[in-house]
Amino acid sequence: MKIEIGAQKPENFRVDSRCGLHCTDCLWKESQGCGGCIETQGHPFHGACPIAACCQSREVTHCGECDSIPCNRLYTYSYLDPEHGDRPPGDRVSVCRHWAAQSGKRKWRNVLLTAAGFEDMAGRQKVNIVNRFLAMLHQPVAEARVLFIPTAAIDDAAKDMAEWCRRELIGVGIDTENITDYDLDGSLTEAAAMEFDVIYFTGGNTGHLLQRIKDTGFEAIIKKMVYANRDYVGVSAGSLIATPNIGNPLDERTAGLALVQAYLSVHQAPGTPPRTDLGLPHFSLSDNQALAVHWNGYELIEN
């Protein structure tokens, strides 16, 4: 099952704003005498736009060229404003990602969101999911360096499963010496993180994991790694944080990384129907399913 998100016809790829809104077709342009975003250097009809000012200060054409997309400000405009926000939520984020890919500046296809890792509870490999992971790597599996983050595992059961995850990595060919644990204590620099080929999040307490990411500023490093085509693998909680929100979609406190324009539930019984009240597609992943995510959408992987 392959789904392309936000696919646009070539004629619609004209970059006409900084944030991903299409000024060309905007109803306010004529009624308010608006000169447009780029044409006015970020001063449309309502005055100076902070997103445009940010792009211009960073010398990027639009938000899709920024390592932080979506930053807190763009996230608020795109996902959290029930009156003036995007429909569907996050639409301008998708547009900016299309623009960045079209220009050749940023094409990434390296995020794998699993419900329950690479093996079932009997120790049998989930071949299709494992093969997708191996295909994502840019080097032989034995040479891949993994940044292993067990921060979500705060109780004994989750800690045991984190060790199971480590064994799964070794089982697919990752060298034990190439796995480095990092418990999100704020000590890892961006430069050091970029030395790794894979960032791997185990399962456990989703809220705890997301809060630690935000408290340590690690969100910026995660996004930079993903956009530089380092591989992101999530298990359970590690997958849920990659969605736009882990709680109420309009609650900024539970805002996720928004690497995927969809919501997930994990450890679901096969055939569990998806939710339809979230404003974006929802996937009820069984333990034998995963979502492979790239700049233009996602693909459901089933074992």
Protein architecture, described:
β9 (289-294) and β10 (297-302) form a beta hairpin. This protein folds into 2 domains: 2-102, no CATH class; 111-302, Class I glutamine amidotransferase (GATase) domain (Rossmann fold, 3-Layer(aba) Sandwich), CATH 3.40.50. The chain is built from 10 helices and 10 strands. It starts with a strand and ends with a strand. The protein is an alpha/beta fold. The strands form 2 sheets. An 8-stranded mixed beta sheet has the order 1-10-9-2-6-5-3-4, sandwiched between helices. Strands 7-8 form a two-stranded parallel ribbon. Residues 6-11 have low confidence and may be disordered.
What's the arrangement of secondary structure elements?
Elements: E1 2-4, H1 28-31, H2 50-58, H3 72-80, H4 91-102, E2 111-114, H5 127-136, E3 146-149, H6 156-171, E4 179-181, H7 190-193, E5 198-201, H8 206-215, H9 218-227, E6 231-235, H10 237-240, E7 263-265, E8 282-284, E9 289-294, E10 297-302
Parallel strand pairs: 2-6, 3-4, 3-5, 5-6, 7-8
Antiparallel strand pairs: 1-10, 2-9, 9-10
Task: Summarize this structure briefly.
The protein folds into two domains: 2-102, no CATH class; 111-302, Class I glutamine amidotransferase (GATase) domain (Rossmann fold).
Mean pLDDT: 93
Uncertain runs are 6-11
Beta strand count: 10
Radius of gyration over alpha carbons?
Answer: 20 Å
The share of residues in helices is: 25-40%
Q: List the strand order in the largest sheet.
A: 1-10-9-2-6-5-3-4
Total of helices: 10
According to CATH, the homologous superfamily of the largest domain is: Class I glutamine amidotransferase (GATase) domain
